[in-house]
Amino acid sequence: MKIIESNGGALTNFEVLDLFRSRGAGKDPTRVIASVLPSEFKVFDYLEKSVARDQTKEIVHKLVDECKTYNLAKAEVLNIANIRPSSLPEVFPIIEKFEERMESKMEEFLEMVMEILPPHPSEMESKEEADEEEEKAVEGEDEAMEGVEEAVEDEEKAVEDEEGTME
Predict the structure, then answer these.
(1) Nearby residues of 117 by Cβ (< 8 Å), 6 or more positions away
(2) pLDDT in tens, 64-82
(3) Domain count of the fold of the chain
(4) Same domain for 114 and 87
(5) Measured between alpha carbons, how far is 31 from 57 in angstroms, rounded to an integer?
(6) 35 DSSP 8-state letter
(7) Structural domain includes residue 5
(8) Residue span of the structural domain in which 107 resides
(9) Are 40 and 64 within one domain?
(10) What is the pLDDT of residue 139?
(11) pTM
(12) Does 78 share its domain with 88?
């Protein structure tokens, strides 16, 4: 990778993660062969657990283009890409005078951010866990129903046997 412009501005977490990946950080499980320093591996590990993990260049470019319609500062767009707010209270500290600047567009802005940027990995994991728990609950209900059906069949056989012995 060749440096075109030194100190060209702030980078998104995705761009830093992409740099580490290009230097082999994600490919070397031993962390010996890759040309990444131990301190950089710590940053890499952190970024792999952040919203940057699932972002792409196209997603970041699309976010930047969409944010132009809201007249946001570069630092505000950078923070939105890095944090990926999912509720209005999360947006307020990122965008200066958010209510005054957005007025009736606050919800629209948040929906745009949530639509473009992938969800936080912890949100996806908690959704997967909820889906797994739901599947287990359904399986448990199925097993319980099978047990009830067997009990009803046993009871019916017992009643038939009693009727047969009474005759």
Answers:
(1) 51, 55, 59, 63, 80, 81, 84
(2) 999 999 999 999 999 999 9
(3) 3
(4) yes
(5) 26
(6) S
(7) no
(8) 58-119
(9) no
(10) 65
(11) 0.65
(12) yes
DSSP code of 51?
G
Asked if residues 35 and 24 have their Cβ atoms less than 8 Å apart, the reply is: yes
Q: pLDDT, tens digit, for every residue of 85-115?
A: 999 999 999 999 988 888 888 999 999 999 9
Quick one: 109 and 128 in the same domain? Answer: no
Shared domain check, 148 and 135: yes
Longest pairwise C-alpha distance within the chain: 101
For tokens 């046993």, name the residue: 154
Is residue 44 within 8 A of residue 30, CB to CB? The reply is no
Q: How far apart are CA 144 and CA 138, in angstroms?
A: 10
Same domain, 17 and 50: yes
Judge if 99 and 148 occupy the same domain: no
Contact 51, 122 (CB under 8 A): no
pLDDT at 36 over 80: no
99 part of a folded domain: yes
Compute φ and ψ for 133, nearest 5 degrees.
-65, -40
Does the residue 28 lie in any domain?
A: yes
- Please enumerate in sequence order all residues whose Cβ is within 8 A of that of 20, keeping only pairs 6 or more positions apart, or say none: 26, 36, 40, 43, 44, 47
Q: Is 133 helix (H, G, I), strand (E, B) or coil?
A: helix
User: Does one domain contain both 131 and 92?
Assistant: no
Instruction: Pull the structure tokens for residue 138.
Output: 């359904």
Please, which residues have CB within 8 angstroms of residue 121's CB and are 6 or more apart in sequence? 49, 50, 51, 53, 54
